[in-house]
Amino acid sequence: MNNISTNNDSSQTDSIEAKESDYLYIQSSQIKNAGLGLFTAIDIYKNEIISIFKGEIISNQEAERRALQNNDKYFINLLDGSIMDSMHTDCFAKYANDAEGLSQSDFKNNAEITLDENDHVCIKASRPIKIGEEIFCSYGKRYWKKHS
Question: Where is each SET domain found (predicted)?
Answer without folding.
Answer: 14-140
